[in-house]
């Protein structure tokens, strides 16, 4: 065996044994080469693939997209690439990753390489790289980041929006109101005599009361409303597209939901009531803080008038 034949045999062996797919298409989209990876994952042997149109072998291929990719390489004589992030797969090959990875088929990067004879492109070599592991890791990383972002916006005890998140949302809603007009209201409320609850029943009971109260309020507000904890026993609610009179009705609905029955904690029935201040966005206000100040003033008026009531800013 001479050196050139030996070199050719080595090249063929490498092509057959590499850990990614290699196949070659002519201008008519007929298969001219089909390596072991393609054979093993497709179940179609090279002898059955070579010479046949790729779309006869795989009718579910994205015909228009693949034809355009290959034709562009023939016309321009330059490489083309497709990431799994743009198109998760070209061939519906099974993968060997755990089913918990959340992907149905092997995720693939595809490279389209011109094969030249002189200055003429005579065929296009397509490589298929299995990037399933990479895609799963990236998805898990993105999910972890999203969870961290969500936790950063949530109050650890009640699971509702924390003060930072709430004020960010209120600032956004106030800016929308300034641009578009309409109505925007906010409620500010806290639990009556909550310090007495903590002193009498303990902080474990107090925490349970806060969690139950938060759930009761969450059950009666709309999806577009933003419910948040300001701190301690103080809470707030953003009511987009809601005039002051309607916001007062919502406040009463919330007040009744909070106080409908005592909270059962460790065999003890803890009575709960709330005082609520209601305010609406006012023309000329420089920022959302004015709404909070108005609602706070209404809240303290509700307390002065005997608690367990809703009061709108006058």
What would you say this structure looks like, in words?
The model has no long low-confidence stretch (mean pLDDT 90). The longest helix has 21 residues. The strands form three sheets. Strands 2-1-5-4-3 form a five-stranded antiparallel β-sheet. Strands 7-8-6-11-12 form a five-stranded mixed β-sheet, with helices on both faces. 44% of the residues lie in helices and 22% in strands. With 314 residues, the chain is of the alpha+beta class. The protein has eleven helices and twelve strands. Helix 8 crosses helix 9. It folds into two domains: 136 residues, Beta-Lactamase; 160 residues, 2-Layer Sandwich (Alpha-Beta Plaits), CATH 3.30.70.
Distance between the termini: 101 Å
> Beta fraction of the residues?
15-25%
Unreliable stretches: none
Indicate the structural class.
Answer: alpha+beta
Q: How many structurally independent domains?
A: 2
The CATH class assignment of the largest domain is Alpha Beta
Radius of gyration from CA coordinates: 33 Å
Number of distinct beta strands: 12
| SSE arrangement, N to C | HEEHHHHEEEHHEHHEEHEEEHE
**Biggest beta sheet summary:** 5 strands, antiparallel
The share of residues in helices is 40-55%
Q: Going across the biggest sheet, name each strand in turn.
A: 2-1-5-4-3
Please name the CATH topology of the largest domain: Alpha-Beta Plaits
With helices defined by DSSP (H or I, 4 residues minimum), what is the helix count?
A: 11
Average residue-wise pLDDT? 90
Shape: elongated
CATH architecture of the largest domain: 2-Layer Sandwich
Keywords: Nucleotidyltransferase, Transferase
EC number: 2.7.7.65
Organism: Paraburkholderia denitrificans
Enzyme class: transferase
